[in-house]
Design goal:
single chain; alpha/beta; 5-stranded parallel beta sheet; 10 helices; 9 strands
């Protein structure tokens, strides 16, 4: 039985397999419409979510399966003090696969020990968000046709941004990749990602504070919001939240084939005036997330199509 807690649990061959399956789902949706009939997905979301939860639900419905679960901790027995381990052990009696989001790092890993069915990490605090990374990877692949020899700019909250951490780890395995890490000093990428991922592999990177200076060299720009829920100090959040706002003017020096990604939700870090730019890929990214979650569900449930 396989779980997915960290994107690095999937080999590059498995990522290729998932992407190929997702592309086949896009081309041949009817072929997959009944593939999970009789299967149930449980969505256990102890933290608010729109895209991730609905994407998992849409993915399972489009595979012919059913969905149970809850969308906030207050509507579950967690509000009575039930442990994560007990909750997932109970839900594992009702469902074939669990997608779980939790504000505490490591909670989905704890869940794997008692669930009895595959568990997918749908985001754990500031740690990991592997299925968002699957959406990111499919978007990059569909826009660029490759993962190799790309310069990737990660911009905004690189300290608490779990989507950034997962994407950096995933892309670090491809040849010729370079990173430009764009953030205020207070929100730099955690040092362990530099010392454990980038430096041992000799991956070129630079840490900068100016988005405008970095723009001309980028093939992919991954924007993130500054996350109020990760801050202990409201004053720090207010001071940093508008550090980077992407506007059409800032894109004047960008490459014509730049791919602009954002895990969403956005607050105001990408102007709505950018939405009509053909380089804006963040709503394509949302749709790609559904296809990759469909492919992942099929893989973890070992469904043959």
């Amino acid at each position: 039985m396989r779980n997915l807690i960290d994107i690095m649990e999937l080999s590059t061959d498995e990522l290729k397999e998932l992407i190929e399956r997702a592309l086949d789902i896009i081309e041949n949706p009817a072929k997959y419409a009944e593939s999970c009939r009789g299967k149930k997905l449980a969505t256990l979301f102890f933290e608010p979510s729109t895209r991730t939860r609905l994407s998992f639900e849409a993915a399972m419905y489009e595979l012919g399966g059913n969905v149970i679960g809850f969308s906030e901790a207050n509507s579950s027995s967690a509000a009575k003090g039930e442990s994560v381990a007990d909750t997932v052990r109970t839900v594992g009696c009702y469902a074939d696969i669990i997608a779980m989001r939790h504000p505490k790092e490591g909670a989905p890993l704890v869940a794997t020990r008692t669930a009895g069915v595959p568990v997918v990490n749908a985001g754990d605090g500031g740690h990991n968000h592997p299925t968002q990374t699957l959406a990111d990877l499919l978007t990059i692949y569909r826009e660029k046709g490759t993962f190799e020899n790309l310069t990737i700019g990660l911009c905004g909250d690189l300290k608490f941004g779990r989507t950034v951490h997962s994407l950096l780890c995933a892309m670090s395995r491809y040849a010729g990749v370079r990173f430009v890490l764009i953030s205020p000093e207070e929100l730099r990428v955690p040092r362990y990602l530099i010392s454990d991922v980038l430096e041992p592999k000799g991956i070129p990177y630079e840490e900068v504070t100016s988005l405008e200076d970095a723009m001309p060299k980028l093939d992919v720009l991954y924007m993130t919001r500054v996350q109020r829920e990760r801050f202990f100090n409201e004053a720090d959040y207010i001071r940093l939240k508008d550090t980077y706002i992407l506007t059409p003017d800032k894109l004047r020096t960008a490459k014509q084939d730049l791919a602009i990604l954002h895990p969403l939700p956005r607050v105001n870090e990408i102007s709505v005036a950018v939405d009509d730019d053909p380089r804006a890929c963040y709503f394509k990214q949302v749709l790609n997330g559904k296809y990759m979650r469909m492919a992942l569900i099929l893989k973890l449930l070992e469904v043959e199509v």
